[in-house]
Design brief:
With 57 residues, the chain is α+β, with helices and mostly antiparallel strands. The chain is 23% helix and 30% strand. The model has no long low-confidence stretch (mean pLDDT 84).
């Protein structure tokens, strides 16, 4: 399910809690560096909708 290829958010600064993302054909996986055991998986369409909403704020 989860790949070993996690990418850290470009907005993350050293020492901060950071969002990490990983993708595979089935979905987009998100985790937080403070809670690395918790992984949220969404469809690519849902992730795109989330990003569009955040950009509109």
């Amino acid at each position: 399910m989860i790949t070993d290829r996690w990418q850290k958010s470009s907005y993350c600064q050293e020492g901060d809690a950071c969002v990490h993302i990983s993708t595979d054909p089935d979905g987009v996986h998100l985790t937080d560096s403070d809670a690395a055991q918790t992984i949220v998986t969404v469809t690519p369409a849902a992730f795109t909708a989330l990003l569009e909403h955040l950009k509109s704020l």
